[in-house]
Design a protein that fits this description.
By secondary structure, this protein is mainly β. The protein is built from two helices and nine strands. Strands 1, 2, 3, 4, 5, 6, 7, 8 and 9 form a nine-stranded antiparallel beta sheet that branches. The longest helix has 11 residues. The chain starts with a helix and ends with a strand.
Amino acid sequence: MAILWMAHGAFAQSGEVYKVRLSPVPLDQGMLATVAGSGSLTAVLSGKTLKISGTFAGLKSPATAAQIHHGAKAVRGPVILDVPVPSAASGTISASIDLTAEQVEDLRNSSLYIQINSQGAPAGNLWGWFLREKP
């Protein structure tokens, strides 16, 4: 039974593993009062399917959207995918998303980040880059 459990765990983690640390990134001084929180996500890429799971907490107002953006490091970019997020100040994120070949390449090149918007910070409350874990 233990061997089956270990095999299941290895199968569940097969693929490229990416980590995301979510932190507030105020766009200007006025946003300092409206953004707060933290979180972490793990994403596993198997073929063209990206499975995302993790948590966030400490938002000053409920989340309204979670989106994956394309951008250069530390530079905002356009939304390319929506990710389900609970309308709450804390919660879990769990999604399975099919990426295009170009999006897979962007992920591998550290050009994708996730952004959680909230009622008090509709232009972005928490941000985090998908960074590949070293094997």
